[in-house]
Amino acid sequence: MTELISVFSQLPWLFISLSFVFAAVIGSFLNVVIHRMPVMMKRDWQQECNHYLSEYKQEVFDANQKKLEAPIDAFPEKYNLVIPGSACPKCKTNIKPIHNLPILGWLMLKGKCAACSTPISARYPLVELITGSLIAFLAWHYGPSLEFVLTSALTFCLIALTGIDLDEMLLPDQITLPLLWLGLIVNLDATFASTSNALIGAAAGYLSLWSVFWVFKLLTGKDGMGYGDFKLLAVFGAWFGWQVLPLVILLSSLVGAVIGIALIVFKKLNQGNPIPFGPYIAAAGWIAMIWGESITNWYLSTL
């Protein structure tokens, strides 16, 4: 391992190139996560509802000394991040391994299914390209180091969260909570922030948006944001300390307001309709991770 790190240190272009290719492959998997995780969650919720309803009905039937038939499994087929294999959603033809190559597979197919010519969304290669590019940048920024490995893992999760929130307005606990605990563990050795700053950051990140949520709800009677947003901000506090939180909140609010106004102006969004806030927190947190100190110093120098 030491020799490999030495080679990468001497040949940074090789490290950056391999990082891009590896990350593009991970980006292909992230497309699966973005699509399938919400489906898996909805299936779990429905199965739980069916289970509770069947228990309630059984109690009613028991009171009348009758027997209830066993509830039917609403989703008998196995469905997770691996099974079933990738297939065209229209004709159900399995996608060949060569067509699953990141970015290149979509280009080879010219953006269409090989069997039925149904258009394949350009979002798939775009996610792979963005993932590869961001990790290649981290490879250049951090070099072959522990910081590179950790920030890459964080970046992968942020991309998945962004895609899911854009599609479903949902930030799954299955991703945000492990990230939160990982950030606290990472900083036991003060990798990015001291342990105390990380603990305060996690609490302050959650409570700051939680407070805004309840003030807004008390004033308007409406939910201004979801609990997943609180947890995502807490993630950045846990990873990089409470000091980054004002910058993350400012940047995410500014970008969110600009995009929201633009969507209303161009009639892509009706006033009052909700928009996902998670992608803005994720983007602002990633920027703060790389340039937070420089941005803060520049702002303070202008005062």
What does this structure look like?
- Residues 154-261 form the Prepilin type IV endopeptidase peptidase domain.
- Belongs to the peptidase A24 family.
- With 303 residues, the protein is mainly alpha-helical.
- It has two domains: 1-144, no CATH class; 145-303, no CATH class.
- Helices cover 69% and strands 0% of the residues.
- The protein is built from ten helices and no strands.
- α8 (227-240) crosses α10.
- The radius of gyration is 23 Å and the shape is globular.
- The termini are far apart.
- The mean pLDDT is 87.
Report the oligomer.
Answer: single chain
- Element-by-element helix/strand order: HHHHHHHHHH
Number of strands: 0
The overall pLDDT average reads 87
Distance between the termini: 47 Å
Protein structure class: mainly alpha
Q: What is the total number of structural domains?
A: 2
Net shape: globular
Protein name: Prepilin leader peptidase/N-methyltransferase
GO molecular function, one term: aspartic-type endopeptidase activity
GO cellular component, one term: plasma membrane
Subcellular location: Cell inner membrane; Cell membrane
